[in-house]
Amino acid sequence: MENDGLILKNIFFKRQNKPILTNITVKIPWGRIVALLGENGVGKTTLLRIICDLNKGYHGVVNLNGVVDEKRKQFVSYSDSLEGFSKKSSLMKIIDFYELGYPDFDRQRAEKLLTFMQLDPEQRLGDLSKGSREKFVITLTLARKTKLYLLDEPLSGVDIFSRDKIISSLIKWIGPDAILIIATHHLNELEQIIDDVMILKDRRLLAYRDVEEIRVQEGLSVEEYYRQLYLEDRRQ
Ligand SMILES: Nc1ncnc2c1ncn2[C@@H]1O[C@H](COP(=O)(O)OP(=O)(O)OP(=O)(O)O)[C@@H](O)[C@H]1O
């Protein structure tokens, strides 16, 4: 079936005539948590932005639940950089804005997430530390009730205690059939919750693998597999 999850077909993307992504083809079924991996500058953010139609001018097809045009945008919750908001806006004001802007925004879930993240709704955006701002971005992203969640390096400034707490709770916030893709350089922390890895290298998709299959068939942890695959490919 062509509307079973997220399907990318032959995605090509150039910037200033330089190829960034070439021939990316993959099918991600519903209910998977996917770690998107690869070196700095390989195109992880670019791919996430193509999926939610923020990067225009790509070639190929992005099919989300059978929707291939820009209408898919409404089903994707993408971690926002919040650059568009005034530093003086309180977190509650931004939540109000999201509630107005997204019909699938679940205010109750947002408030529970705020408490879980130990964020004060009256605090101003500009007063948040780097880690607290990231916690707020995760809050806004996960507070929508939707099909596809994209988190781009969500925890780089978050302390290790909060990281563990957030990672182990990720599944509980999203529906069992949703897809969550997390671009990350901290694979080891996510190993316990991810179903699949998607590895980009040299503008292409090097591998898309089921994590359990890697452990059983290769006898390796996901991190070991990732390192081995990258180094092997470098030698070729
Ligand atoms: N706004 C932009 N203008 C021009 N080039 C850009 C822009 N944004 C990204 N690039 C280039 O596109 C390529 C892919 O960048 P991207 O941010 O997608 O990589 P990434 O895998 O997310 O990197 P990182 O792990 O460092 O976050 C890089 O070569 C980068 O320099």
From TrEMBL:
SMART domains linked to this entry: AAA (SM00382)
A Pfam family this chain is assigned to: ABC_tran
Family annotation (PROSITE patterns): ABC_TRANSPORTER_2 (PS50893)
SUPFAM superfamilies: P-loop containing nucleoside triphosphate hydrolases (SSF52540)
Stretches assigned to coiled coil: none
InterPro entries per UniProt: AAA+_ATPase, ABC_transporter-like_ATP-bd, P-loop_NTPase
GO MF entries: ATP binding; ATP hydrolysis activity
Protein name: ABC transporter ATP-binding protein
Protein source organism: Liquorilactobacillus vini DSM 20605
